[in-house]
Amino acid sequence: MKRAGLLAVVIIACGAIMMGWQSRLIFYPERLAADVDFELPRSAEEVHITTSDKEVLSAVLYRAQSSQGVILYFHGNAGSLRTWKDVSSDFVPLGYDTLVLDYRGYGKSTGRITEAGLYEDGRAAYRWLIQQGYHPDDVVIYGRSIGSGVASKVVSEVEARALILESPFSSLVTLGRELMPWALPGLTLRFRFPNEIHLAQTSLPVLLVHGRADELIGAHHSERLAEVLGERAELHLIEGGAHNDLAAFAPYHRAIAVFLASHRSGGPAHVPTAEPAP
Q1: Which of 30, 34, 101, 178 is deepest in the core (most CB within 10 A)?
Q2: Range with the lowest mean pLDDT among 74-88, 151-165, 246-260, 261-275?
Q3: CATH code for the domain of 249
């Protein structure tokens, strides 16, 4: 009985720790001063996006010479635009403008990280693109790792051309059960990101790219999402690829380029020539 009681105390304590500290366990934002210079090329500019709950998001818009659309990029759980802004190098040479943003609580963006707040950040970024003159069919939404949770929610609510998910999870609760079963994630996780449910609500074509050697989010998560999506999914598993090094593998870049080429619209994107609106 004493052992059972001690075990119960330990489980409750672990659950309490998870409830109180999960934001710090899941998210690793880099905060930046408002005057940090991103040293952007002439074809790019820093913009600010206001959410419906009055937070202000820092973002960078890169323009291609002859735009075939725009990538709305939701980055992973660590860092800031200082480290993520260069992902545009995969898309701009292919003719895609690219909007990369920092979620609330990251970089120069205001606010506190919550699941509902991150979803609103995604919606706000999408709305901003439409306000700039892009059409829904110009927008390809991209989510990497934790960004797959934001991307999957956004595409369940809006129109877009396509979706790309890099190293996604089927749900954060499922991932939590694999990584921290002692914390009872099904009961204690405030952040749930049910990608599997959200993706069942979209009809978009989806590219899933995952490293077979991913040490954090196993490739079986992408395989599960591919099952949910059925014929709409295109799954590429990168041999030897881990969680943070897919960009070092040629098949990763090739998969993205081929997918974007196969899902171009009938003509050039409806891109405004004026400066971005505030």
Answers
A1: 101
A2: 261-275
A3: 3.40.50.1820
Long-range contacts of 83-92 (CB under 8 A, 24+ apart): 83/30, 85/38, 85/40, 85/44, 85/60, 88/44, 88/60, 88/62, 90/247, 90/253, 90/256, 91/62, 91/64, 91/256, 91/260, 92/43, 92/62, 92/63, 92/64
- Residues 149-159 have a mean pLDDT of 98
- Phi first, then psi: give them for residue 60, nearest 5 degrees: -125, 130
Q: Which residue is it, tokens 């990101």?
A: 193
Under 8 Å between Cβ of 259 and 208: no
User: Which residues are 101's β-sheet partners?
Assistant: 59, 74
Tell me the pLDDT tens digit for each residue of 214-227.
Answer: 999 999 999 999 99
Burial class (CB in 10 A: 0-12, 13-18, 19+), 99: buried
CB atoms inside a 10 Å sphere around CB 150:
28
Neighbour-count burial for 215-236, b at 16+ CB within 10 Å, e otherwise: eebbbebbebbbebbeeebbbb
pTM of the model: 0.88
| Residue 255, domain member (yes or no) | yes
Give domain status of residue 276, yes or no.
Answer: no
Structural domain harbouring 64: 2-262
